[in-house]
Amino acid sequence: MIGRTLGGRYEVIQRVGGGGMALVYKALDTLLDRFVALKVLRPQFAHDEEFVRRFRREARSAASLSHPNIVGIYDVGQDGDDHYIVMEYVEGRTLNEMIRERAPFQPEEAVHIAVQICEALEHAHQNQIIHRDIKPHNILIGNNGRVKVTDFGIARAVTAATITQTGSVVGSVHYFSPEHAKGVATGEKSDIYSLGIVLYQMVTGRLPFLGESPISVALKHLQEPFEAPRRVNPHIPQSLENVIVRAMRKDPRERYQSAREMREDLETCLRAERLHEAPLQFVDEEAETTRVMPAIRPAMVAVSGSGREAYVPDRAARNEWSEAEGRERGGRGERNGWNGPGGRNGRPVPLEEDPEESFTDEEEVEERRRRRWVLPTVLTVLALAMIGVLAWGVMELRQQLTPKDIQVPDVIGKPLEEARAILTEAGLQVDEQVDQKPSDEYEEGIVVDQSKQGIAVKEGSLIRLTVSSGPEPVQMPDLQGMTVDEAKEVLASLGVTEDRLDLVERHANSDPGTVVEHRPAARDLFQPKKDTVTIHVSLGPEEVAMPSLIGSTLEEARAKIEQAGLVLPEQNIFTEPSFSPKGTVFKQFPAEAGEKVAVGSEVQIWVSGGYPDNTVQTDYPVTVSPVEEGASSVVRILVSDAMGDNREVENKKISAKTTFWVPLVLSPDRSGQIVIYVDGRFYESYEVPYSGQPAGTPPAEGGEGQAPGGQPSDGTGAETNP
Q1: Between the chain's N and C termini, which has fewer beta carbons within 10 Å?
Q2: 291, pLDDT greater than 80
Q3: Tell me, what DSSP letter sits at residue 695?
Q4: Is the pTM of this model over 0.70?
Q5: How far apart are CA 156 and CA 452, in angstroms?
Q6: What's the average model confidence in pLDDT over 564-587?
Q7: For position 99, what pLDDT does the model report?
Q8: What average pLDDT does this structure show over 497-514?
C-alpha cells in the first residue's frame, strides 16, 4: 500500500495504526499539498456491499460535523477494491497510549481531557449523531494539547452490519453501556456511560470491569457494581468521583441527561468548595416500595361469643382490603371468599349465629352468661401478671444491653494505624472509609480531623477519620523561556528542593540553557514538598557540518544534503550562467563547507547553466625547455582565469623543448594568467587579456612575457618554436 496513490491524489507515505476494521496510513493530498489520515477498509469489510453502503452513509453523515474537538472527515472514496476514508491528520498520540504510559492522571488533566470530549459529544448529539464506541483508542491528543475524537458514525455502520449478519454486538466490550451489551437501541446516554469509563480509567489507571471473555465483561456491565474510584486512587476528590459514578449508572435515567450537563459538572468539580462534597447516593426503588393496606373502618365491628372475637368488615371494606391484598400478591385478591381467624388463610371471617345459643329458660341463659365471663376474667388476670413480669424483664434486659457511654479519645496528630488502634481499644468502631484533605501542619497519613471529637458516645459508635494528603497543592508557574537558574529560584520559593529537580538536556530551537518544557506543566497543581519536577533544558538547535556542494551535480548535492539532515526545497534550486561546468553547483547557502548549521535548515544552491554568452575560450601556446639539455625536468603550469585562481592544467616531465597549449576561459572583467614552474622553480608567466574574439584567436600583442606576433618567450632567451 505504501507508495500507492489512491483516488489519483492521496499518496500513501507510511502506516500509522490500524484495528479490526481498517488500517490507517499517513498520506499526502497532492492536490491540496497537505497531510491527511487515510483509513482503508480491511478486505472482509470491503467486499461486503451492504456494509460498504452503510459505512459510506454514516461516514458522510459524520462529515457534516465541524468542531475543534472532532477529527474532520474530508472525503470517502474507492480505488479498485480499496474503500477508504480521508480524515484530518493529527500530529500526536492516542489517549490509550498516554494511559498505558503514565496513568493515573492528575485530576486536573483528566478533567481537562474529559471536558473536551464532552464538547465533541455535545456537538455530535445536537446533530443527531451518536458515536457508540467512545474509548481511549478513538481519542487523539495533539502535540498542542487539543483533544480530537475520531470515528464518529463508523461504529454505527459496523454494528448495524454485524448484527444483521450474526445477531451479536460488535464494539469495545470494556467500554460498553449496559443497554449496548443487551443489544438494544443506544442513544446519547450510552456515549456518556462510555465516557465515564474512560474518565475512570484516566484517574485510576485501570478498567472498572475485567473478565476472562467478552461475555463475562458484558455481564458485569449489566449486573455488577464497580469499585469506587477513590478506593483505587485516594487522591481523587469526592466531587470527581461523583461525576464518574453518575455517568456510569446502569439505569440510563440516572445518568447525566446530556453531554452538556456532564461538561458543566466537570467544569466545577475541582473548585475548592466542591472537593469534599458528600458521596453521591441513589435510592433503591425496590427497597422504598410502599405497601398499601386498607384502613380499619367503624363498619368492622367486634363480635364476642364463646371466647371468640373477630372484626367483621362491611362489604365495601372487605372489597377494599381484598383488592389491596390482591395487588400486593400480584392481583390475586379474593373478593368473594373472605378468610379470617379460623378461616382458610388466617384472615377475619364473618361470624354466623350459633343455633345452640337460642334459649327459652331464663336461668339457663343467666348461667351461661356467668360461665361466659369466668374464662375471660381469668385470662385477663393471667395476662396482666405476665405483662408485669415481661415489663420487669425488659427493663432488666435493657439495662444489661444498653451500651455504656465512652469519651471519644483525641487522635488528631497521630498516624492512621495508631489512631485506629486507640479508638478500637476504647470500644469504638472506625469507619473503613478514610477521608483526605491537604494540610500544611501535618505530614501525609497523619490524622487531621475526626468525628465526635471530645464528646461522650455510646460504646461501639462509629468514628470517621480524615488524614492529611500533604501540603495544599499549588499551581505550577510557567517556566518556559527562563534560564535554569531563574527556574530553580522560582521553584525554591515554592519549596522545591534541588534533590527533587530532574534536569534533562535536549536540542531545541531556543537559546541554550533555557527551559523548553517542564512537568508538571504550567497551571498544573502539584505539591512542592513532595513531587519531583522535571525540567527540559535547551542545548540549542542540533547542528551539523555543512557538506561541500561546489562542483557536485544536482543529484549528488541532493544526496549530501539529505544525509546531513538538511532540507533542499525545489524552490531553493537556481540555475544561472557561470564559469563552472554545466550542471554542477557553483554556489551554496547558508554556509560554506564545514561550517555548522542547525539540523533541518533549508539549503539553497546555484547550478551552472553553462558559460555566459560573452565568454571567450582559447588555447594559448607556451614553450618550455628543461633545465639541462638532454636531462629531464618536471613542468607544472597554473592558470588563473574566469573559472578560478591557480588551477593546475599541466604537470608533466620533459627532456627537450616542448610547446604546451594552455586552455583559458576569459570574460570581459577577467583576464587570463599563466604561471610556469620547472623543477619547482619559477620559470615564466604570461598575462592573456580578454579579446572578445572567437575561441582559438591568438591574443593581441603587448602582454607581459609575450613575444612579437603573439609568440611566448621561454623566459631564458632561448629560441622559441613557431
Answers
A1: C
A2: no
A3: T
A4: no
A5: 55
A6: 92
A7: 95
A8: 90
Could you give the 3-state DSSP secondary structure of residue 63? coil
CA distance 288 to 282: 11
Domain 5-88: assigned CATH number: 3.30.200.20
Q: What is the mean pLDDT of the chain?
A: 80
Q: Where are the domains of the chain?
A: 5-88, 92-274, 474-538, 543-608, 616-710
436 contacts 468 by C-beta, under 8 angstroms:
yes
C-beta of residue 188 within 8 angstroms of C-beta of residue 130: yes
Residue 308: its H or E element: strand 308-312
Q: Which pLDDT score is estimated for 436? A: 86
**Which residues, other chains included, contact 337 with Cβ-Cβ below 8 Å and sequence gap of 6+?**
344
Which residue, 412, 401, 402, is CA-closest to 452? 412
> Do 337 and 321 touch, CB atoms closer than 8 A?
no
543-608 shares the fold of 92-274: no
Write the CATH number of the domain with boundaries 474-538.
Answer: 3.30.10.20
In the prediction, which pLDDT does 87 show?
A: 92
Neighbours of 403 (CB within 10 A): 11
Q: Which residues are catalytic?
A: 133
How would you classify the pairing of strands 525-526 and 515-519? unpaired
Distance CA 413, CA 453 (A): 13
pLDDT band for 46, please (50, 70, 90 cuts). Answer: confident
How many CA atoms, within 13 angstroms, populate the side-chain half-sphere of residue 657? 13
**CATH assignment, 616-710:** 2.60.40.2560
Q: What is the pLDDT of residue 298?
A: 41
Burial 687-706 (b: 16+ CB within 10 A, else e): ebebeeeeeeebbeeebeeb
Output the DSSP codes for 402-458: SPPEEEPP--TTSBHHHHHHHHHHTT-EE-S--EEE--SSS-TTBEEEETTTTSEEE
Domain topology for 92-274: Transferase(Phosphotransferase); domain 1 (1.10.510)
Across 213-222, 395-404, 604-613, the highest mean pLDDT is recorded for: 604-613
The hierarchical CATH code for the domain 543-608 is 3.30.10.20
Are 128 and 75 spatial neighbours (Cβ–Cβ below 8 Å)?
Answer: no
Lowest-pLDDT choice from 6-15, 86-95, 275-284, 527-536: 275-284
- Write down the pLDDT at residue 374: 65
Q: Which run of H or of E encompasses 536?
A: strand 533-538
